[in-house]
Specification:
The chain is an alpha/beta fold. It contains 8 helices and 8 strands. An 8-stranded parallel β-sheet has the order 7-6-5-4-3-2-1-8. Helix 7 links the parallel strand 6 and strand 7. The longest helix is centred in the last third of the chain and has 18 residues. The protein is globular and about 40 Å long.
Length: about 210
Amino acid sequence: NAAISSVCAQLGKPSPRLVAVSKVQPNEKIEAAYSAGHRHFGENYVQELVGKAPELPGDICWHFIGMLQSNKAKMLVQGVPSLYMVESVHSIKTATALEKACANAEREEKLKVLVQVNTSDEDAKSGCEPKDAPPLAKHIVDACPHLTLSGLMTIGKFDDPNPEPYFAMLSEIRDQVAGTLGVDAASLELSMGMSGDYDKAISAGSTNVRVGS
């Protein structure tokens, strides 16, 4: 938190939300961070999160940040009542599965979702193609009343020391999505930046960084 605040002060940027990536971390470590005041935690695996969540404080804001198979949507939504956001919606099929799961679970609040975009064109990486982001976003807004489209997410290319082109591309795609939806681009979040590149992500306008693992 202190490091991120320092970067924001130097850049004159507002502080993004910090999501502490807690995959494969024992509950004791999560509880220690919680006791220090942290509330947003990110998990990559459905079964791990479904196992952890009931054993930890109910007001934790869980972010699912891993590859989500549509057949796991029901398990995720039902097993994690305090699920705050799914950052990795990459297809209409996944969005529809989450919509159905939320409707069946009778969640009190809409589930926030981000469209994950594969900005680095890597076959091994999840995320929709850039051209598919606007229609996917429109599907979520038009056909998924139990979901709220909060913005977009991307991960820079793994072996590229310069993530800035991917962050810039996501910002451009946000403008396209905003145009398709007829909304202000600033109303859509940009989730980008991890432990090794969060400073560059903040400089590029990230509102949500995923740190740790």
